[in-house]
Specification:
The chain crosses the membrane at residues 6-24. Keywords: Cell membrane, Membrane, Protein transport, Translocation, Transmembrane, Transmembrane helix, Transport. It is a single-pass membrane protein. By secondary structure, the chain is of the alpha+beta class. The chain has helices at 2-37, 83-90; strands at 44-46, 52-59, 64-69, 72-77. The protein is elongated, with a radius of gyration of 20 Å.
Length: 94
């Protein structure tokens, strides 16, 4: 009985770490992958560095996209597109 009770705090610590750190990170990762897969031509986006633009081309071979900005066209990796800011830019006005 003493052996089991000595492991309970360790098991509780692993459960807390999983539910407060690992599970939310996995959920966020899935959401970001889904967002990157749903991008299409014409979407207004914001990169993680703050660059605003519109998607002109999507390349599935190297997971990149060409973005049109006011200063020209730029090639970015899809993972550099900010999910939260892009949703705000594309949200319909009330």
């Amino acid at each position: 009985m003493g052996d089991i009770t000595s492991f309970l705090p360790i098991l509780a610590m692993f459960a807390v770490v999983y539910f407060f750190m690992i599970a939310p990170q996995m959920k966020r990762s899935k959401q970001e992958k889904k967002f990157a897969a749903e991008l299409k031509k014409g979407d207004k986006i914001v990169t993680k560095s703050g660059l605003h633009g519109k998607i002109l081309e999507l390349n599935d071979k190297d997971r990149s996209c060409i973005i049109e900005t006011m200063s020209g066209k730029l090639k970015f990796d899809r993972s550099s597109i900010s999910m939260e800011l892009s949703k705000v830019v594309n949200a319909p006005e009330k």
